[in-house]
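Re: the request from the purification team.
They wanted to know what the chain is likely to look like in 3D before they choose a buffer screen. I agreed to run a prediction and write the result into the notebook, where they can find it.
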Amino acid sequence: MKKLQFNKPFAIIAALLIVLCTSFIKSQITFASFSNKAYDVYTNGYHDDGLSIKNDSMKKVSYAKNLVSIASKYLKDDNPSILVLNQAINSFDENRSISEEAHASTLLDGAFNELIAALNNQELTQKDSDYVLSFKADYDGRNDMIKRDKYHEYVLSLMNETTNFPASFLYQFSHNKLEVFDGGIE
């Protein structure tokens, strides 16, 4: 019986390729897991309790809709401030990435404050004035909650895990990127 002959350089190269491919595949699975976990925290909260940036953002949209309702009593429907805020509100109806929602949140903040400023120049009833003040306080409170959300710490801790070699090198080739939410943070 003839013994199989192995080419030692070929065996070393094959072993290295197997290790590199396995490392690459494992890293992609890990980065996808990081991304999915971060998105879950963004949408459901750190403790999966619904206290999340996504829910806070949707509350901001609700306050903005209420503000438009009050504003439509005093301003024409084609008022630029109303139109811009309605566009910002409608942008949240689309399913977006975290960074796109952060951008939409920033646009919503600007439009919301612009409409508040426009209403400050109007003669509002006491009741409507109280509503506007309440919407503004609640809206600003949601921005404060977003700023303090544990999502930010969580994403930064995951990002720190991708800074050392070889993770930093392999992360460059991943299509699963961690996203920082910076919308609504003044």
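For the purification team: Residues 43-171 form one domain.
Please add any questions underneath this entry.
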